[in-house]
């Protein structure tokens, strides 16, 4: 019987949820997961196809896994995900090592096919479960798939279609099940979390959803990522601040601030709204942590427009920043725009933006020195703990490092620490 499956999950947290749902289907009918690909009868590479660097990383991983067909137990190499969705025919020609390609909406079909090929009963597949690939104390809750915003640089609507919100009762059921299985930190995700429900309820229900999630007894921390600036409003901020389990942390990608750039990107909303909501957040809760992302080198971006972005970030500092150089994606409107920027100019602007952000991030951490608070132990390495507070989102922010920890502290524990030293992205803490 061929029943050992290995998974390589690439890209964003939304893609990770796809991987976990597929693994849940496979294990429900008798597959066993293995972390060593040399032991796997089936290897699945769940790819990302969002930007050029992600595509290249996907190809590298596919080729790396292909060697286990000759030097391991692998009988079937499967490619799924966004890259397979967009470029299936090209990949079939270029990668004969791969046995099958499946897109982002074909996971149940794939699970049934693999079950049949490997001598397992496809009729026992349960499509409602997930096998977490995160530590068992934290999980992502994907509240919608696809996107309706149609930013001119973004291929997500081409890959995953328009917004498809998950009914609230299904999400509460899933979150409750995760909590019963040991999850205490829930990170709420989608392409645009603040538009949750507009397609099925006719209005955003993100605040209502967050309040219902906060009622789940065994959840301790709930964090909101991937909000859209023009739909972040006072009601949302007040909801977060008023609920103890909702962390005072928000990820609000602005992408740019120049009005002409925002128009060319087809980003809704205005600079004035962003400035106003940032001021409201700072007033509502001084300890509130703001994260954003920005794109540099978008077609037509002038030096003056980039300078405006830098000035805005200096005058309205965000505690966390993720920056990207523009990637020219097939089929997107922006890929056809005049004024494509040279790669060296993009890189120079990227470097300058991060150079601007580094002292802001350091100053944010310095202000925290001397404070005490609750942290979650993410990892343990010997007597060193790598922890996160409400101010550090999993996988994208830094750590609070605690040395000389006693043996009775485990991963997933919540402990109290005093912050004693600040670095640009990490902090040093001591047990309180």
Would you kindly provide a written description of the structure presented here, covering whatever features stand out?
This protein is of the alpha/beta class. Among the domains are: 4-124, Methylthiotransferase, N-terminal domain (Rossmann fold), CATH 3.40.50; 134-251, 2-Layer Sandwich (Transcription Regulator spoIIAA), CATH 3.30.750; 372-431, Nucleic acid-binding proteins (OB fold (Dihydrolipoamide Acetyltransferase, E2P), Beta Barrel). 37% of the residues lie in helices and 21% in strands. Strands 6-9-10-11-12-13 form a six-stranded parallel beta sheet. The longest helix has 26 residues, at 343-368. The termini are far apart.
How are the secondary structure elements laid out?
Layout (H helix, E strand, L loop, with lengths): L3 E6 L3 H16 L3 E2 L8 E6 L4 H15 L1 H4 L4 E6 H13 L5 E2 L5 H11 L20 E5 L1 E2 L10 H5 L3 E2 L2 H13 L4 E5 L8 H4 L4 H8 L7 E4 L9 H9 L3 E6 L7 H7 L5 H14 L4 E8 L6 H13 L4 E6 L17 H26 L3 E10 L2 E5 L11 E3 L11 E9 L4 E5 L1
Parallel strand pairs: 1-2, 1-3, 3-4, 4-5, 6-9, 9-10, 10-11, 11-12, 12-13, 16-18
Antiparallel strand pairs: 7-8, 14-15, 14-17, 15-16, 17-18
Helix pairs in contact: 1-5, 9-10, 10-12, 13-14
């Amino acid at each position: 019987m061929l029943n050992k499956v290995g998974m390589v999950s690439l890209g964003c947290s939304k893609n990770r949820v796809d991987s976990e749902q597929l693994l849940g289907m496979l294990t429900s009918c008798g597959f066993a997961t293995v972390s060593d690909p040399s032991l796997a009868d089936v290897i699945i590479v769940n790819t990302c196809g969002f930007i050029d660097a992600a595509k290249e990383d996907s190809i590298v991983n596919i080729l790396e896994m292909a060697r286990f067909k000759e030097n391991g137990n692998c009988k079937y190499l499967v490619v799924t995900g966004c890259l397979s969705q967009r470029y299936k025919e090209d990949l079939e020609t270029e990668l004969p090592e791969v046995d099958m390609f499946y897109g982002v909406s074909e996971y149940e079909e794939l699970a049934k096919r693999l079950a049949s090929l490997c001598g397992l009963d496809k009729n026992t597949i349960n499509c409602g479960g997930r096998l977490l690939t995160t530590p068992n104390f934290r999980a992502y809750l994907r509240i919608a798939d696809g996107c309706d915003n149609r930013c001119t640089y973004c291929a997500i609507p081409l890959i995953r279609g328009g917004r498809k919100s998950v009914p609230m009762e299904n999400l509460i059921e899933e979150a409750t099940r995760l909590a019963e299985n040991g999850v205490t930190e829930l990170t709420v995700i989608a392409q645009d979390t603040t538009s949750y429900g507009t397609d099925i309820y006719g209005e955003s229900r993100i605040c209502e959803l967050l309040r219902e999630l906060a009622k789940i007894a065994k959840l301790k921390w709930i964090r909101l990522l991937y909000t859209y600036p023009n739909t972040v409003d006072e009601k949302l901020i007040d909801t977060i601040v008023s609920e103890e389990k909702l962390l005072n942390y928000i990820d609000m990608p602005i992408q740019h601030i120049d009005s002409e750039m925002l128009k060319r990107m087809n980003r809704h909303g205005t600079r004035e709204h962003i400035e106003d909501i940032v001021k409201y957040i700072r007033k509502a809760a001084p300890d509130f942590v703001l994260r954003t992302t920005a794109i540099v080198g978008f077609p037509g971006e002038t030096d003056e427009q980039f300078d405006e972005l830098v000035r805005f970030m200096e005058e309205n500092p965000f505690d966390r920043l993720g920056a990207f150089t523009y990637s020219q994606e097939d089929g997107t409107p922006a890929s056809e725009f005049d004024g494509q920027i040279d790669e060296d100019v993009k890189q120079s602007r990227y470097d300058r933006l991060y150079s601007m952000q580094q002292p802001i991030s350091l100053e944010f951490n310095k202000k925290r020195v001397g404070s005490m608070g609750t942290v979650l132990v993410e990892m343990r390495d010997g007597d060193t703990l790598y922890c996160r507070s409400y101010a550090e989102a999993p996988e994208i922010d830094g750590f609070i490092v605690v040395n000389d920890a006693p043996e009775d502290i485990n991963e997933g524990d919540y402990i109290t620490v005093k912050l004693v030293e600040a670095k640009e992205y990490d902090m040093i803490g001591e047990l309180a």
